[in-house]
Amino acid sequence: MNSSSFIKLSLMMLLQYFIWGAWYVTMGTYMSEFLQSSGVQIGAAYSALAIATMISPFFIGLVADRFFAAQRIMGVLHLAGALLLYLATTVTGNTAFYWVILVYSLLYMPTIALSNSIAFHQMTDPGKQFPWIRVFGTLGWIIAGLMIGFLSIEKTSSTFYMAATASAALGLLSFILPSTPPKGKDANASASAALGTDAFVLFRDRPYLIFFIAAILVCIPLSFYYGFANVFLNELGMENAASKMILGQVSEAVFILAIPFLFNSIGVKKMLLLGMVAWILRYVCFSFGNINANQWMLYAGIVLHGICYDFFFVTGYMYTEKKAGEKIKNAAQGLFTFATYGLGMFIGTWFSGFTTEYYTQDGVHDWQHIWSVPAYIAVAVMIYFVLFFREKKEIQAS
Q: How far apart are CA 279 and CA 355, in angstroms?
């Protein structure tokens, strides 16, 4: 890969995740401030991305990959997305806002797979080269959080304007990205292949089935964090909460370096359990943290994001690949994404919304009770996992 391609692909990844980080983290706060949204309405808005995650594989597998150059369709999607992000700031009702976010999410989520395809197509050694490109995505999310804090726009519609500007920029950049031609009409494509049903054979393996169910369930606690952590921290009075929350992404980037070593030395079960314990500790910290003496607990809850995410989801992707083997690994990864960021997050966003609404009276959130719910769920998932998951240290493909 030449230096020009490296620069273009790195900028592509930076903008791709800058866009997401710019509007997604603070959307709940925006809805509370400007739309007077209930917990259910905030949860519903966050569920839009989960719905898009479940639908986007069909779009990529059945349409984009077969008929269009990846960089061109990504350009069109991001330009249209920029208009919708702007439109989101002009609507004043929760129903209209939900539909704008849903349509935007349906445009944005396919670009995750498209950006990966564009990057992989240019690489001679993806295993070594892709991490150096993908790390710019994490950097983009961090920069978005820092800019929101620096510009003091966390509680304003300017976060959407910032995301729209970046989306328009990436849309234009996409047309000069290295070419990734379509696979053609004769490419093997079907609804079942797009969903990853070839990987259903993994469910014959009892340890993987136990893990798969746990992965869906643990998305419920994850949804509480994504949907309501920024609202919570702002209500407590933490200044520039969005900027402080990027400590979670910094933590994620640091802990991911330890995963290959730990995966081989302590085994997948202990890795996954460490992730589950981190979920419990995070929500205990949020339940009892405050802006005064226990402010350290708020920061601990944020920093624990790295362990929560890396030790469960990143480890889960690695475990899935090892269990699947070479033949069905792509289908298995697609199925795992569909089940977690699609189905699991869809359940989680609605459940977190109803829970938050239940513990809200006269516009006042009972955060201690709200955060105790995902903590209890994480405890239940951990107990289930300890009791039923049995895996050999040397993982063999199913």
A: 18
The reported pLDDT for the residue numbered 68 is 77
- Same domain as 120, residue 29: yes
> Which range of residues forms the domain containing residue 5?
1-178
CA distances from 273 to 303, 341, 386 (A): 18, 20, 8
Specify which residues 360 forms β-bridges with: 365
- Judge contact between 175 and 96, C-beta under 8 A: no
Q: Quote the number of domains for the chain.
A: 2
Please tell me whether residues 212 and 269 are part of one structural domain. yes
Residue 13, C-beta contacts closer than 8 angstroms, at least 6 positions apart = 115, 119, 133, 134, 135, 136, 137, 140
pLDDT digits 0-9 by tens, 297-356: 999 999 998 888 888 888 888 888 788 876 777 677 778 888 888 999 999 999 999 999
The number of residues in the chain equals 398
Same domain, 139 and 205: no
Give the predicted TM-score (pTM) of the model. 0.84
In-domain check, residue 184: no
Structure tokens at 266: 């302590």
